[in-house]
Amino acid sequence: MDNRELLERLWTSDSELVLSAEAEHEMRTEDYVLEMPQSGERIVGRDTMRAMQQEYPNPPSIQILRITGSGDHFVILGRSDYSGDIYYVANVVEFRDGRIARETRIYGAPFDPPAWRAKYATSPPQ
């Protein structure tokens, strides 16, 4: 299985996250690192990541909008719903030896575009 197929295994055909913390744990390297620049958090080790996921009080639903990349480097664009609070996420995923070694997740809340830009832009499909 190549790295893209591994990423696609995380989601069902309707783009909803399906794997458990335990199944994801098996997809990561021992020295896995997750960085979230907006909060300044850095989670080191796949065991630490699994423990955090297992304790997460109300995980969001996650819809994947697009996966791009090849080889050992991918970007996943998604929409996370935290009980009605919506965030878009760009997740930079790096592989090593067929396992996820590093992720950088960048979250952004939706906002209304400025009126002056309306003549240049269209709304993306939801």
TrEMBL record:
InterPro entries: NTF2-like_dom_sf, SnoaL-like. Residues 26-102 form the SnoaL-like domain. It comes from the Bacteria. Transmembrane segments: none annotated. This is SnoaL-like protein. It comes from Kribbella pratensis.
